[in-house]
């Protein structure tokens, strides 16, 4: 009996010894996955204009507050934890940093000098096109669609956007649309396309007329 107990003890010791590296690897993998998930969460919150703090993959109090702000803005339970519903809404609402930068460059190239509302309106047109039939399905393709934006053809797209241009983009992404869901805009004083004048006018903001 004692011999059997001794053999069992030795077996357990060897088994645990062999299992230890495996457990450590599984723990490291789990921690790594969690860190990557949090970093992705922080990146998505930041792209929407919320402030999750440093994007280190560590769930800080600042990140939790950014989650609460996102939840409140989307009429979700503001618990600060990432439920499946919150994650789904966040993914649906998220644009990449590159998308935000491209939009800011269009806003700056086409509407700098306009009021913040006027700049938000230009950004909102891009969002409206993304959601409408008959337009490309990505921000990049919308922006670079032939003859879609003057800033592309005249080179002003290459200018560096200022903070207000980015602010305007963030407002538009969050849902502010002062245009009434316009799909087009133009400056009537300098527009040369006769077709654009045939579109139904919705409103005028600053120098731009917004139309369907």
Automatic annotation (TrEMBL):
One of its GO terms (molecular function) is hydrolase activity. Gene3D superfamilies: 6.20.240.60, Cell wall hydrolase SleB, domain 1, PGBD-like superfamily/PGBD. It holds the Pfam family PG_binding_1. InterPro entries: Cell_wall_hydrolase_SleB, Peptidoglycan-bd-like, PGBD-like_sf, PGBDSf, SleB_dom1. Residues 113-211 form the Cell wall hydrolase SleB domain. Residues 36-88 form the Peptidoglycan binding-like domain. This is N-acetylmuramoyl-L-alanine amidase.
